[in-house]
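Methods — Computational structure assignment.
A single polypeptide chain was analysed. Its primary sequence is given first, followed by the predicted tertiary structure written as structure tokens.
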Amino acid sequence: MTTPFEEDNLEEDSNRIIDLINDGHLDEAEAWAKKLIIDYPDVHDGLERLAMVYEKRGDSKKSVEFYQKAIDFVNLNKANYGEDLESYLDFYKDRIKELS
């Protein structure tokens, strides 16, 4: 497993999970995505990364579940997203549509 997340390195930690997914290390990516949710509960990244892991595994049902959780999270925290709000929501909705 890679080194533990360092505090305040959300972008680096989140991107590390994408690298693990792209390299096919899905179990490790899943574990780190779950840790991301715990370490950074105020951001959507962990939910999105889990959706990506399940999508890569071909588990559309679980992937859709976590993209929907990301939508719910973003909707609950709309004020934090400013101009980017609709782009996040549209991305997740498109992924759900494609996977359903």
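Note: Confidence is low (pLDDT under 50) at residues 1-7.
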